[in-house]
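Quick illustration, no need to memorize.
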Amino acid sequence: SLLFAVLHFAVPAMAALHSLCVFSSIASPQLLGQSLHPLPSANASPFPYRTPFLSIRSGAYTDELIKTAKTIASPGRGILAMDESNATCGKRLASIGLENIEANRQAYRQLLVTAPGLGQYISGAILFEETLYQSTTEGKRFVESLQEEKIVPGIKVDKGLVPLAGSDDESWCQGLDGLASRSAEYYRQGARFAKWRTVISIPSGPSELAVQEAAWGLARYAAISQDNGLVPIVEPEILLDGDHGIDRTFEVAQKVWNEVFYFLAKNNVMFEGILLKPSMVTPGADCKDKATPEQVAEFTLKLLKRRVPPSVPGIMFLSGGQSEMEATLNLNAMNQAPNPWHVSFSYARALQNTVLKTWKGQPENVEAAQTALLIRAKANSLAQLGKYTAEGESEEAKKGMFVRGYSY
């Protein structure tokens, strides 16, 4: 018919004209080098830089993910991060004169997971892949030991940091290849949450490339984890390296967290089924102007309120090289008033430093080392409740643990 003929030729012509107009606009000299993201409107969201399209995501594990996240983010409890790679664990063992062999790694990890009553203060434990499959000398799987204490087993899934081509000595985190199949296997082994650590360096920029690469990697990992039943811990760590002040850290963290939550939404990640593991807002390690716990709390909580939706169940801070006592004091300062989220801890060195030095690799010191672990775990439990005081802290707990360019 005549109508069909008109439509047959007119529609493609209109589409071509539209494409030409769009291309001409993008290629316009006035727009070259400018962002193509829409400008925020007067009714912009709390994340002002970019707003993704609204989408609804449902999955087979939705209810379980929400339940797991709430369990980990339970009052007075936090996460024991014991997911050091074998190489990093070897450095810890070397500090007390032990060889980096599986038997020694197993002995130390057994000390941690079998500490009696640990579940009173610890809700989740992040394991390295080797640890997920290890058992006690009596034959009980580490996963079972944790579950008996009502501690949720988790797993480190990233494959570490590598140089980021095209950047100023920055890095990106690898491990997305094969992540879905690995996550499914970890779930079968008893893991119920995952961790992926990426880092941002302030002295190196940070460049837009590094920030977007970090945010995109975290978002893809989070989506894949949720699809396989694992609650993703989203960890955009801003390293302590540098002599910058606390204001500069705050400025960079705003940009990083904006990108992270933008890409999480773009990848349809369910916020109720994630946990955020950020660094606290502190001055650089070489800054002459040190911040008090109250200042750290003020800047960090202001950042959380500007960038993190209240639907996220828990904020589990990393210690990032702070001393054991400093990390606990800062956490306590953040819990002096109610927060929209569970504000707690996911500490490695800030829970384990005294433990390792108490143990010294000697079987007769296991009980004393476990007592040291419970003391630190209880201190941070009290800090999560806003009831911690530093009275009676040991000199060892006051020693800083900052390592320049720290890798895990």
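Residues 1-56 have pLDDT under 50 and may be disordered.
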